[in-house]
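Write out this protein's structure.
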Amino acid sequence: MHGFKARLAPTAAPLFFALLGVAVLVGLWQVTIMAWKLPAYLLPTPAAVGSTMVADWHQLAEDAYVTGYEIVLSFATSLGLGLAGAVALHFWPRLARALWPAIVFAKILPQVAIAPILIVWLGLGLAPKIIVAVLLGFFPILVATYLGLSFVEEELLELGRAMGANRLRLFWRFELPAALPHILSGAKVGMASCVIGVIVAEFLASNAGLGHMVLRATGQMDTELVLATVIALSIQGSIFYLLVSAAEKLLIPWHISQRREAALG
């Protein structure tokens, strides 16, 4: 019984504090409305927004499915391209030296700014939204993975060579596992970036999705629906981020960040 409670505590504590944070935020929301006597069209009450979420749950669910599909597709593409690109740069250092300045320039370039051009080129549909999201999610994964592979300790590589590992086996057995913390950190940033990219693309050109629903509700001056949709977006984005964090806990339980988190929990 005591062992079960010990295993449950690290999981229950973050959940408790997350719920406590939500409760405090809702309380501040309600107090702000009461203190400033804000009209409903400026800031509706939490109860009114909750009622709207319940009443329009079917439409919210349909649009959340569209947005979720776009996020998953863009993140999977970003992850695949980012990993492949980083491995290519790692295996061919001359290529990395030639392309790294361009990669850094492209990373600091506001990719969202080219979204209208993509819409002009590709029209309305799935492709421009995925491309915008991939441009945002690709570079964090690429850079984090490449740096993780580059910073593997030389002592570990010497151990692998002493064990007779060839170049490919050295990569799979030593370099890639050692770089996993960097890769997963980049994946978490990439996931958050993909969520932002999809929503921005839906703002610009879409006839479905939560981003489109926010625009439609704003045009109708339906503040309750706007906030309900924003909350749905926050919940959906948090779920995707937590899934990547869960994968991190499963893949690198030995890393200092996970052991420190478990100790603090």
